[in-house]
Amino acid sequence: xxxxxxxxxxSSSLKFKLYEMPEEKVLCSGNAxxxxxxxxxxxxxxxxxxxxxxLPILDHAAAVQLVVDALIEKKIIxxxxxxxxxxHRIVQGGKYFSHSELFNKDTEDKIESLIPLxxxxxxxxxxxxxxxxxxxxxxxxxxxFDTAFHQSMEPQDYVFPIPYEYTEKYDCRRxxxxxxxxxxxxxxxxxxxxxxxxxxxISCHIGSGASITAIKDGKCVATSMGLTPLGxxxxxxxxxxxxxxxxxxLCACTGxxxxxxxxxxxxxxxxxxxxxxxxxxxxxxxxxxxGDPKAILANKLFIRRIADFxxxxxxxxxxxxxxxxxxxxxxxxxEIRESICREIAPALGLEIDYELNKGKxxxxxxxxxxxxxxxxxxxxxxxxxxxxxxxxxxYKK
Length: 397
Ligand code: ADP
Known about the structure:
The chain is 40% helix and 23% strand. By secondary structure, it is of the alpha/beta class. It folds into two domains: 2-145, ATPase, nucleotide binding domain (Nucleotidyltransferase, domain 5, 2-Layer Sandwich); 193-383, 2-Layer Sandwich (Nucleotidyltransferase, domain 5). It has an eight-stranded mixed sheet, sandwiched between helices. The longest helix is centred in the last third of the chain and has 25 residues, at 293-317. Bound molecules: adenosine-5'-diphosphate (ADP). Adenosine-5'-diphosphate (ADP) binds next to α10 and α12.
């Protein structure tokens, strides 16, 4: 009975999910938040139970110890030896990783060298990895990269039109993100494409962070996020793609520094910035219902940006067989799904069952009618199970 832990370590948080493999049965999941504080929070869910407590968690190692102790105490596992492998989500794998990799000195060094590209994330992932290594020194540790799936892009899809010297010297290029999710979704979607020889998929991972990926024959050919997750479509608090001169102009107008404006582009823009209501699409939609003009504009802008990328990728793929909606908004907001479909339907020949779409939240469903030129489906994403699968395959090697 092999157990595999999927881990997502942030700078002050540590999310975990324990699987029994190869069955992919979820044994428990949980989260340590506010690590480094006296009033940190530890939550765990197992079987049909859950527990949440406030306590001091001074560092990630303390958080990992808490996880392991809880697993034994709640009788989720009998001994630590049952955990055979731990898979760590790593946001930035740069040009080095086109698939998951065993954690060794070289992997660790490369992730460390990529910290300038993802300062908060990669640093936190290494802290998480080292904390697990300390407490479970003998398990197989695997790094699963958010960028790996996008490494199959061609240079004309990932090179920015800046002096080539910068591309070479500083590795400044498009890496994308959410790769684990897009890969999972494209694999899950194959059951809808059994009669298609070379499947062309547009995968829309639309949550607070949002990205769209074009996938041909199981490989990513284009993705909307850029050097960092700031690029691409509009998001909860991020701008998505902007004319670069917006930075200069607004710094000159406001007297703010580039760094301050960069934070605004990341944390105060998108739904939140335009609507001045909220970064949460539910609040924005409620304000749309109430007739708030800025919320209406924010929602229209969001839909338009997504439709534009779908159009772009339709051309990039030479047509499309299947469009997937996923993540917080894609899985749950049938209103936004309907708006996107209505916007792209005439050009793409979509025939959507809008009645069926209505009220569907968090479930897998085919939205297109049989006569539609393109299939449209909702598939709930599962990045953790992808991490567990990849990690387990290294353990079994
Ligand atoms: P991230 O993982 O990037 O933080 P999520 O995938 O959790 O983001 O998506 C968050 C978004 O999903 C929010 O805008 C929220 O409004 C939307 N969302 C989540 N649940 C629901 C729901 N039940 N109904 C409508 N929208 C939802």
